[in-house]
Amino acid sequence: MSDFNQRRTILKGSAGLAAAATIGTGSAIFAPFAHAQAMTFKPEKGAKLRVLRWSRFVQGDIDAYMANVKKFTELTGVEVRVDNEGWEDVRPKAAVAANTGAGPDIILSTNDDANLYPEKLLDVTDLAEYLGKKYGGWYPAVQQYLRPDGKKWLGLGLGAAGSMIVYRQSHVKAAGFDTFPKDTAGFLALHKALKEKGTPGGYALGNATGDSLWTNWLIWSHGGKLVDKSNKVVIDSPETLKALEYGKELYANFIPGTLSWLDPNNNKAFLDGQISVTNNGISIYYAAKNSTDPKVKEMVADINHASFPIGPAGVPTESHLFFNQMIFKYTKYPQAAKEFLRFMMEREQFDAWLIGAGGYIAQPLAAYESCSIWTSDPKNTPYRDSVKNMRPTGYEGKLGYASAGAGADFIIANMVAEAISGSKPPKEAMERAQKRAERYYKV
Q1: pTM score, two decimals?
Q2: Are residues 429 and 301 in the same domain?
């Protein structure tokens, strides 16, 4: 078992700031952390902020987020402009901002994008450690993504959209399964039975930022990985080959067309009744509950969620879409930007946002496990521990420029798509992935 899987305890924020007091004019002001009292930053005079974030997949997310933004402006007088872009569009815009030194003050992006340009980001260690101490600690994967050197925080974790199994209970039962399978053998048997019943499954195999993450599970569940602990590329391996051979059997039972699926496609296919099982955030369930279409509304009672099954690796191998919050050094208003993130992460605002998003986002801080959204509907509960249990996309190596670049290049997803669809022999697909990854992980 890897160190990461053995280590399920929560990493606490450093206690080095525990006895800190006022730090200079206009800097952070906070009391001893032992009392978990408030930390504040004094916004610069005339401060205005621009925030770029990914577009909502559930309307309640953006509604609750903007309600908190309004509260912040009313309390501080700082005007905040929020722009929304698709996941695939945020990443290149963030890269342009980093390279040109101009753009949004704060960007909410995905996975380990912060490691693409760490020198361009404002150090938020004081704020991260304050929040970690106050709210039960940041989960391990958050620290791996945003504090890769174990010291400096490149940004704050926002949470993750859980990539869980979404399925129709009646269809699974009709296929001969009383409960959703918990191992890969049962998982394959279910998909074969679903296809025979005319109610197949389907999973994105295009360059989908969120929904292609199931391909990480496929490789990891069989013991494969892109790199080892020393960042040596090891994707061309017997374990990966076994995963791809299993994937070919699984793919034979998918609905046609998944090779071109991006993030919205499986949502539409599921709600249209074309597929009975897929991987997704809670947005499918959320959309069904809020639909005005009687046929879609009827699905609500039949939809349920489950974790991905355990494979030959013998341990959970969850991969979820992580969200970060980055402040760029070029901002004219660093204090205002820090105060904005602090305000948005404090319990009164963050709980309201989690609830508004309907469970679409899982928290990055342990204290928010107690948020009512996770128990108000038992179908939400599987998503609660997404960040707590996930492996970073750069598993099993150290995160940095290489992991961020390789992840953004969809190396694993492309290899899986090529091999399981039959467009390339598995060995050739592995070799190609190995060479592509080695361009990032240079020896």
Answers
A1: 0.87
A2: yes
